[in-house]
Amino acid sequence: MNDVIPQRTRVAPSPTGDPHVGTAYQALFDVAYARQTGGQFVLRIEDTDQNRLVEGSEQQIYDSLAWLGLAPDESPQVGGDFAPYRQSERLDTYRPFVDQLIADGHAYYCWCSSERLKELRAAQEASKTPDTGYDRLCLGLTRDERAKLPGFSETPVVRMLVPDDVSLTFDDLIRGEVNAPRPDDQVILKADGFPTYHMAVVVDDHLMGITTVVRGEEWISSTPKHLLLYKWLGWSAPAFAHMPLLRNADHSKISKRKNPAARLMWFREQGYLPEALLNFLALLGYPPVHDDSEVETLTDFTATFDWTKVSTVGPVFDTGKLDWLNATYIRNLPDDELADRIIEFVYECVPSTAENHTQTQFETVLRAAIPIIRERITLLKDAAPMIDYLLVPAADLTIDDDARDALPENTPEIIAAATTALAALGDADWRADAIQATLRTSVVEGLALKPKVAFNPVRTAIAGRKVSPPLFESMEILGKGESLARLARLA
RNA sequence: GGCCUUGUCGUCCAACGGACAAGACAUCGGGUUUUCAACCCGGAAACCGGGGUUCAACUCCCCGCAAGGCUACCA
Fold first, then answer.
1. Active site (annotated) includes residue A381
2. What are the residue boundaries of the structural domains of chain A, listed by start?
3. Is the CB of A379 under 7 A from strand B?
4. Could you tell me the CA-to-CA distances from A219 to A27, A43, A345, A350, A443 in Å, in that order?
């Protein structure tokens, strides 16, 4: 551990919609490795596909990574020594390297129209020929020579000239030696002057000093292209770590269509805690840090991180354990902080809650109720609905039908006994323990009822439902007057 | 179709030639209890199939099968 080389890792999402959970997954491993080695974690925006850009999604990438505690050391937002970090601002950077490849005979212009390429592909599929890919019609031709042939397009692209002896093997930090398919004559510069991913990623990773590339398994097949570019440009390639792909329940690559959790923002909207999500992501494709518990911090994860422990099998992204983790983290939060988180969540994600109640009333009641709801909520969004009965005046409290139906015959008797006994309780004694003692004496013992039966009507009167947070504490929060008013409704 | 990657309980994940195949979540049963939770105890639940190699295979090899990825002027 003395000769550790600081690693520069990066995540390079495209701003083409809501940030993807896979970005956070890779960022977590990037951060762990970078921090463990004393290096940097870089965020680069890959916006080379101008057609797919979605406004606002770049900002969401910053926000969601920051929310998760995975803020990059360098990015378009915070800058850095290797700016710009947005590929659309680096067009001038790529061009000379493309020209160099052409001059060296490693790349060539191609004037084939997209129609011709489409036909070529269709023909290849129909003939079931094993070799697909570009047929090199344009190779060695000048613009004028090519213009005489069919399927000509005035604006050319530039393609790699993949040699027959291209190396198809490389070392992966997770998988060891990996074989990959033989590449096609891949386009590296598009007709619109933008580089493709393959060109841009190699140039940028090199120029930005990236030493370890963490990316999804789907990139294994294009790694030989990248290695070829590094070789031609005379650069040494970074180390690669191809992460397993997160899956939908049906085992296909995780998608926003099939899995709402594919959207990173979804977790915030649902009221997941970032530390719980981070913990969960660290458990996917990677064994728990501790033997006796799967609850672990980013610090734990970072300290013991090891690429060889990363699984090669794509895990199904099932939120079951995440829910449990979230509930666990909620239970472990101090009262004040849990209240703060719920309040922040509600104002940000459920504005209607704030509209229905005055801010101070909501916050006051919530803070008082934290002890009785904390172990009953899984998500932050569960909190407000759970205390709704504490926020309305007695007259406005709705009593659920199923609760009313479950009322015992002697409900009036129970309510009367409870009311009389509670009315005698002094304001200063209006505390949960005293309320409970009073009701036990007057109703349970006084009417010789089982507690379960005795408290049923009281709960329905107070909360309007069969299931609610603890009864006596609820009455304490409501206060004597309000509690008696509620009992009166069932008298 | 071709190439590549992968195959342990429902899900996550251990076991890296020598245990009755471990743990977690979920699930089921019980306890506790003013409801619901939380908490405690317990149960059920897996090595894709077939051949090898070996004294010994979940672990190594081969063949199947299955799943996934790539096969774009998308990343």
1. no
2. 8-86+247-309, 90-243, 334-390, 394-489
3. no
4. 16, 18, 37, 39, 70
Residue pair A178/A171 in contact (Cβ under 8 Å)? The answer is yes
Query: Per-residue pLDDT for A104 more than 90?
Result: yes
**Per-residue pLDDT band at A352 (split at 50, 70, 90):** confident
CATH of domain A8-86+247-309: 3.40.50.620
**Per-residue tokens: A147:** 């213009």
The DSSP H or E segment spanning A188 is strand A187-189
Two structure tokens written together for A32: 């762990």
Work out the number of other CB atoms within 10 angstroms of the CB of residue A355: 8
d(CA A391, CA A377): 18
Strands (E), A67-144: 107-112
Q: Which residue has the tokens 């949960």?
A: A432
Same fold across A8-86+247-309 and A90-243: yes
CB A288 under 7 Å to nucleic chain B: yes
Q: In this predicted complex, what is the ipTM?
A: 0.95
Give the whole-angstrom CA distance, residue A471 versus residue A468: 7
- Of these residues, A190, A256, A258, A480, which one is catalytic? A256
Closest nucleotide to residue A49 (Cα to C1')? B74
**Which residues fall within 8 angstroms of residue A460, CB to CB, at 6 or more apart?**
A399, A403, A404, A406, A407, A466, A490
Domain spanning A394-489 has what CATH number? Answer: 1.10.10.350
Quote the pLDDT of residue A356: 66
How many Å from the CA of A22 to C1' of B44? 34
CA of A439: nucleotide with nearest C1': B34
Among chain A residues 334-363, those with CB within 7 Å of any atom of strand B? none
Encode pLDDT of A301-324 as tens digits.
Answer: 999 999 999 999 999 999 999 999
Q: Could you tell me the fold of the domain covering A90-243?
A: Rossmann fold (3.40.50)
Distance CA A445, CA A463 (A): 23
pLDDT at A354: 60
